[in-house]
Every structure is written in C-alpha cells, then in structure tokens.
Design a protein that fits this description.
Elements (H helix, E strand, L loop, with lengths): L1 H8 L3 H8 L3 H5 L6 H16 L5 H10 L1
Helix pairs in contact: 1-2, 4-5
Length: 66
C-alpha cells in the first residue's frame, strides 16, 4: 500500500513509510527466491494432485517426511 501511495499519490517514500508504520528498509525489500523454495513448492503441488483427500497438516508432514 505504501508503494501504491508513492506511485499514485506522488508522496515521498519517507512520508508513505511513516504513514503506514513501516521502515524504509521494509519498503525497499525485494525477496530472493531460492532453488529450494521452488523445489518445495513443486513438491507441494504434486502432493496436492496425488493426495486430494489430505488436509494441510498431512501435506506439510508429507513434505517433512520425504
């Protein structure tokens, strides 16, 4: 929301961060996707397709056990 305020309302990053109660570091943060995250996501999708009757807890346990 802070980024939208800066882009659409033309306010400064400093003011947007102050208004939304976040740090400027948080505003500028860009997440880095690791290969491990991609592998985990793919595994969860495969579990979802193969075990449709499992709930979230069983899926997480399935990932941990594999």
């Amino acid at each position: 929301m802070a980024q939208q305020s800066v882009e659409h309302q033309g306010i400064s990053i400093r003011l947007a961060c102050l208004a939304f109660g976040i740090s400027q570091t948080c505003y500028r943060y860009q997440a880095k996707q690791s290969a491990e995250n991609v592998e985990i996501a793919d595994h969860l999708v495969r579990l979802t397709h193969n075990q449709r009757n499992w709930g979230f807890g069983l899926r997480i346990n399935g990932v941990r056990l594999d």
